[in-house]
Amino acid sequence: MTPTPTTPAPSATEAAPAATPAPDAPAVHTAALALGDDALVLSHRLGEWAGHAPVLEEEVALANIALDLLGQARVLLSLAGDEDELAYLREERSFRNLQLVEQPNGDFAHTIARQLYFSVYQNLMYGQLAATDSPLAPLAAKAVKEVAYHQDHAEQWTLRLGDGTAESHERMQRGVDALWRFTGEMFAPVAGLDLDREALREQWTATVTAVLQKATLTVPEGPQSGAWTAGAGREGLHTESFGRMLAEMQHLHRSHPGASW
Amino acid sequence: MATAHQPFTTAPHKPAAAAVDGAVDTTVLESAFDAAVAADERIEPRDWMPDAYRATLVRQIAQHAHSEIIGMQPEANWITRAPSLRRKAILMAKVQDEAGHGLYLYSAAETLGASRDDLLDKLHSGRQKYSSIFNYPTLTWADVGAIGWLVDGAAITNQVPLCRCSYGPYARAMVRVCKEESFHQRQGYELLLALSRGTEAQHAMAQDAVDRWWWPSLMMFGPPDAESSHSEQSMTWKIKRHSNDELRQRFVDICVPQAESLGLTLPDPDLKWNEERGQHDFGPIDWSEFWSVLKGNGPCNDQRITQRRRAHEEGAWVREAAAAYAAKQSERKEATA
């Protein structure tokens, strides 16, 4: 088989390929994998919207966000190992993403609620990370600029849907409520991520509360985590739909072991 | 030559639409229009133009815009299964570009007085068409490469001359579209090259895709010149600059050496170099298939339009919400003014 010309991932490292970082892998690998999986999985979910968006402008916007996230995922996964081995050859239990990002798209309001919760988190988290001396800081400094747009997009739509028609208000409230129980996991500790988690939680809550109130929506009051099914993605426990998502994503790659694409 | 028009001004020999009233003899306007087209000047939205010219452009630009947004479907079909993250990023960006092309083209149609909503209604109700090529299915990953190489290649061959189309906004939209399309075409070629040089199974996948997409791609240039209903008038108006058969021949001549470099075979036993003509001869096209797909009997006609309609209908509440919110915002602004 002749090797095919390929361009490297945005910042491919020389790290030896590994399907999953070894138990004694540096903590930064664990952190890169967690954040990389978040970006990879949400990018995939947003990619499912292609051809189905409610208006042409949103085809462009959702694809744009998906592409930003995929770019982040490629850098992060390459810090942890080989991007394609990590994306395509791990089993469900080895993925370290938040359960929030793997949740199916639902209707547009549900997707926007997921975007709001996650983009506010990512913006604050990358903002903090960029100011540290972590090897992930350069990626965070670049990504935080992209994520600021994602947050703006989610906020604008939360306002339009929350304060639009009776139907859109109801749908938006349903999305915000349904995903609330997946938000607590964002503030759990991650090895290799030296963040002020208390500040993260406070700022996230303040931002999300302000947007929801402005959108005439009710801030959910239920628990943000609890049972292991609600927020254990970082430990490799996922929700049922995630296995199907991976089956679709990995099928072709796994059908041709060792092939180059 | 294209001229940049200031608002409310126009070239002296091209009367502005605003200047037209019942008293003006339309034959004077028409001869000024004809002279501008003959001199290769661009017609701009404010210029007077014959109704039939406007209608032809709206029909063609709308069909082109519809093709872009329907064309997202067969490729989006593979986004979630792309076999490497690099390929996934390329494919997502490509499908996004198509949505962007749809946006420029609907905007170009709007400069002629059409509205996007109305054009979409016509697409959804079957009163306007999109390129028949998108009524074929993408069955394997290699189809993504074949679409890039052949379908985008054919589209570029068709569209490069449109960058010199007499109608300014369309011509300018096409400049940008063509730049992005040639990028897509190279990416499709490169995808097929990787497969062709890959494992036996990958090579077979690439050959199968080319076998299925070759003939439909040749049909993209439209029926033979003798049977093309809109061609003659469009040529005079410089909306169209080359005949269907001329463009089809150009495409075949471009593809033959590229197929050789790819290590893939074009599925036409009659394809050979004709020394005398300095062009390739190729076998007869099955026009009955073309007409049948055009009439709605292709493998995916129903599927494509059903998905488009569903996305539109399921998005209605979102568009209504955005409109309601915008109305509330402007009311609030007025109340505080």
Automatic annotation (TrEMBL), chain A:
Instruction: Kindly list the biological process annotations in GO that this record carries.
Output: phenylacetate catabolic process
- Gene Ontology annotations for the cellular component aspect, listed alphabetically: cytosol
List the SUPFAM superfamilies: Ferritin-like
Name the InterPro entries for this protein.
Answer: Aromatic_CoA_ox/epox (IPR052703), Ferritin-like (IPR012347), Ferritin-like_SF (IPR009078), PaaA_PaaC (IPR007814), PaaC (IPR011882)
Bias-annotated ranges (Low complexity): 9-24
Q: Where is this region: Disordered?
A: 1-24
NCBIfam families on file: PA_CoA_Oxy3
Q: Which PANTHER family match?
A: 1,2-PHENYLACETYL-COA EPOXIDASE, SUBUNIT C (PTHR30458:SF0), PHENYLACETIC ACID DEGRADATION PROTEIN PAA (PTHR30458)
The name this protein carries in UniProt is Phenylacetic acid degradation protein
Q: Which organism is it from?
A: Streptomyces alboflavus
Q: What is the lineage of its organism?
A: Bacteria, Bacillati, Actinomycetota, Actinomycetes, Kitasatosporales
